[in-house]
Write a structure and sequence with these properties.
Layout: E1 3-7, E2 10-13, E3 18-25, E4 33-39, E5 46-52, E6 57-60, E7 68-73, E8 78-83, E9 92-98, E10 117-118, E11 122-127
Parallel strand pairs: 2-11
Antiparallel strand pairs: 1-3, 3-8, 4-5, 4-9, 5-6, 7-8, 9-10, 9-11
Length: about 130
């Protein structure tokens, strides 16, 4: 059974850094499209970063390019999101997601509809 468990969220001042982790079980991330999403109160869920572990290809939403880095560790079956230069507008609940191994490559890697399984989320709060 697919399970995704996020950790690493917290409160940080603007300009600070956090690293989110997503522990995957029940499958290997090696052959999956994985993604990080976030949702702020009153807003729709937004794709932040996506990675295909098979070839290391990544996609980022424009607002985080140059600040966030998605990465993985196949041996540990972990997905990460390193967030630097955090801004107040990065405040949200962050979710890890994976796409079915049987699905073709996504048309829109940052669209939530491209993903099948989700974690419970971890809260990130950035204050000025």
């Amino acid at each position: 059974q697919v399970q995704l468990v996020e950790s690493g969220g917290g409160s940080v001042q603007a300009g600070g850094s956090l690293r989110l982790s997503c522990a995957a079980s029940g499958f290997s991330i090696r052959y999956r499209r994985m993604g990080w999403f976030r949702q702020a109160p009153g807003k729709e869920r937004e794709g932040v970063a996506s990675l295909y572990a098979g070839d290391g290809s990544t996609t980022y939403v424009d607002s985080v390019k140059g600040r966030f880095t998605i990465s993985h560790d196949n041996a540990k079956n972990m997905l990460y999101l390193k967030m630097n230069s955090l801004k107040e507008e990065d405040t949200a609940t962050y979710y890890c997601a994976c796409r079915s191994q049987y699905a073709p490559p996504p048309v829109h890697p940052l669209a939530s509809t491209e993903y099948n399984d989700w974690g419970q989320g971890t809260q990130v709060t950035v204050s000025s």
